[in-house]
Amino acid sequence: MTVIVTGGAGFIGGNFVYHMLEKYPKYKIVCVDALTYAGNMETLDGAMKNPQFEFVKADIADRDAVYALFEKCKPDYVVNFAAESHVDRSITNPDIFLRTNVIGTGVLMDACRKYGIKRFHQVSTDEVYGDLPLDKPELFFTEETPLHTSSPYSASKAGADLLVNAYNRTYKLPVTISRCSNNYGPYHFPEKLIPLMIANALNDKPLPVYGKGENVRDWLYVKDHCEAIDLILHNGKDGEVYNIGGHNERTNLEVVKTILRELGKPESLITYVTDRPGHDMRYAIDPTKINRELGWLPATRFDDGIKLTIKWYLDNRKWWENILAGEYQNYYEKMYGSGN
Ligand code: NAD
Ligand code: TYD
To answer: How far apart are CA 214 and CA 222, in angstroms?
Structure first.
């Protein structure tokens, strides 16, 4: 079996590469990544020497490059993680989100049609469902929840999902889609809430909480997510959507306070900053379908996963310090001001 993993130099794709190499030593894993600011070859250090692994630097929206790659490696499966993934960046620069997330997905599926494929799997997000109100904790996202997006990021992901459904119906391309909640764990780029707060706390810098910090996210440990995608890829039904996540809801403030407590840092580091425009209030997944059909439930409770994650950031300082020392510094100053 040959599996193309796009976006494998990023956070979840990188974890998925390791998951697949370990679990399926006979599979050939080809990682395709454009190495944007979010892609990091250091994430793939542990895979590069594995003869079953190959890295190809390419843009998924570059049709010639994608077709040449498919021609050469004739994949059985494609798992598409490649995306612009940060909501805040989509608010300042939506264009690149449309190009990579929508056009890129279309180009990959055209290649799948041209060269034949067992399954194209699209890694989507629960953000395509919009948000839930804070005062109705009994509500959850199911696969039937209507798409109702808030940010250019989520709109571009919803656009891609619709295109995937259309290719399934019109061209009978074998596809599945998964919509997961917020991931956390090793190799998470430090512009996102959890790694940003861990890095700032370790550096005794202010922890910038948007608004009142009352927004709720349903935290999914990245290794549980990889397990779920693996199950869907091999056993999921053609044309189906599966929600991944559940039962790990926390307010942002709870998350930040947990990190400070675990690191023995004072809550006085918390700084409330201007809220994100259009900020989604609550995300919460109902995982009944994937549990019933594929036997998956999240194995890692947030209280355990956050400890594992903090330990990883303590043990791998070089990985994230290299990012903080580079071009990311400019983004941080623009976003939060040079005083923070
Ligand atoms: P990430 O930003 O850490 O990594 C994205 C990777 O894609 C990077 O390595 C980047 O270089 C690569 N990439 C970007 N544009 C590309 C292009 N045009 N061609 C090829 N490669 C390109 O993202 P992540 O957090 O690992 O997310 C992976 C996927 O999961 C995304 O599709 C995202 O929408 C989805 N998702 C993420 C989360 C989360 O909590 N992180 C939650 C729900 C869904
Ligand atoms: P983020 O990690 O960007 O993921 P998403 O927006 O996709 O859910 O943000 C998670 C939550 O944390 C979200 O409610 C915004 C909030 N947040 C902050 O309060 N401060 C920050 O500096 C960041 C990056 C996020």
So the answer is: 23
- 251-281 confidence digits (pLDDT tens): 999 999 999 999 999 999 999 999 999 999 9
> Which residues are known to be catalytic?
126-127, 153
Strand partners, 243: 179
The answer to whether the predicted template modeling score (pTM) of the entire model surpasses 0.85 is yes
Q: Which ligand is nearest to the CA of 271?
A: 2
Please indicate whether residue 193, judged by its CB atom, sits closer than 6 Å to ligand 2. Answer: yes
> Where do the H-state alpha helices sit in the chain?
11-23, 45-48, 63-73, 87-92, 95-97, 105-115, 152-171, 193-202, 222-235, 252-263, 288-294, 302-315, 317-325, 328-336
- Predicted confidence (pLDDT) per residue in 3-50, tens digit: 999 999 999 999 999 999 999 999 999 999 999 999 999 999 999 999
**CA-CA-CA-CA torsion sign (261, 264, 268, 273):** negative
Judge contact between 237 and 293, C-beta under 8 A: yes
Q: State which H helix or E strand residue 125 sits in.
A: strand 119-125
The CA 192 to ligand 2 mean position distance, Å, reads 6
